[in-house]
Design a protein that fits this description.
single chain, alpha/beta, eight-stranded mixed beta sheet, four-stranded mixed beta sheet, binds N,N,N-trimethyl-histidine
Amino acid sequence: MTTIAVPAARPQVDERIASAVRDGLASRPRRLPPWLFYDHAGSELFEQITELPEYYLTRTERGVLAAHADAMIALAAQSEGDGRLRITELGAGSAEKTRLLLAAAMRRQGTVLYEPLDVSPSALAAARERIGLEIPGVTVVPRVMDYTQRLDLEPAGVGERRLVLYIGSSIGNFEPHEAMRLLRQVRAGLKAGDGLLLGVDLVKDEALLLAAYDDAAGVTAAFNGNLLIRLNRELAGNFDLEAFAHRAVWNAAQSRIEMHLESRGAQRVRLEALELEIDFAAGETVHTENSYKYFAGQAEAMLAEAGFTSAGSWTDARGWFAVCLGRME
Ligand code: AVJ
């Protein structure tokens, strides 16, 4: 009889995650990239966030889209005559918000090709189910792509123009220079007549901003802390959740909400899979997210700087959230 030595079960380490965590935790101040939030549990927590009374972003943008989707689609479709729109979304779809735009395109042209781009195959599969089943006439063509690295789009068909959606203020996670790089990258993938619909959260009263990122029910705190649960699971870590506090800060000089995890005391944490030990001082923070807030007119200016012509801009009655259409001439 042969005895086979079974190595201790060790999680399969994803290199992209390993290097982001290694670099981020070694830098001062320590940081972790916000894309790490979105494992299965994190995506569910984010869905819960979008329904919180304090998290005005999703429902405000949804209101803007509900009121103006037809106008947005009409403007995107018509420049130099009417084109059929193909709708390409950066990210795997934002549920009812995307649906409002697809429904408007359906009203205009009867059928529509919808192309969500995302790094996550499972997120794309869910989007395909959701959209494909709920709106007959929409053909969903999902593509696995890290659009922050490169955007390679097959050219839209003859007589067809592409409308790229980048809604939900997802752009707010990027530093201003990275955001501009991304917009230019999108523009480089488009041709004359194509457009980009950009949704951005606007600067408002500080108390409202802070509440949106530090809700009474503690869902955002759980979303932030889930990052540590993920590192424990995927990198064999021993973070003690109770030993870190959720912090949301308004950085007025940079016009951004920051989220941090603050070490409640001096402690040592081990990430077995990286053979890494980190000593946290009491009060030391890990910066986990920036969520930039823009001034009125700023999104239009960014679109213009990236080479788009500003074709339309919509906001809610309180001026909390803006959706802007940039077009390629
Ligand atoms: C998905 C990046 C738009 O910044 O508001 C929600 C993520 N972070 N609550 C945002 C988030 C904390 C969200 N974005």
